[in-house]
Amino acid sequence: MALAAAGTVLFFLAGTWVLSQIPLTAAFVETAVVSASWTPLWLTVIVALVTGWGEETFFRGGLPRAWGRRGQAWSLLAYTVSTLFTGNAVLVLAAPILGVVCQAVYNRTGRLAAAWAVHSAFSLGVVGLVPLLFVP
């Protein structure tokens, strides 16, 4: 579980770095970093933890059961589409990867708390590291 969380954070940071180097996508990274810099850290952490818990409860716990045999695939698609509404292109690109990792951890352990832990570690890693590593 810790390895899954750490790997997801590192993959996201590497992807963010790549996107920050491409002129067409660098503005997306800058927008996310600037947005994070004016929000109080305590509020960002609380929002990251609460939304992560809620997303995993809904997209890993509820939807797959409600949608039956192919519920996990449809839930992953719904999770990815839901991130479009954030307006954060970097998050939209990370969503399917985080979704697959969290679903795999949930499937392996049978515990929703494992998916919560991975998502929370991912969110805290991103919230803590992206603003430090990608100064506009």
What value does the Rg take, in angstroms? 15 Å
Helix fraction? over 70%
Total DSSP E strands: 0
Largest sheet: none
What does the average pLDDT come to?
85
Task: Give a quick rundown of the structure.
The protein has 136 residues and is mostly helical.
Secondary structure elements and pairings:
Blueprint: H1 2-21, H2 23-38, H3 41-67, H4 71-83, H5 89-109, H6 112-133
Structural overview:
- The longest helix is centred in the middle third of the chain and has 27 residues, at 41-67.
- With 136 residues, this protein is an all-alpha fold.
- It is built from six helices and no strands.
Keywords:
136 residues, mainly alpha, 6 helices, 88% helix
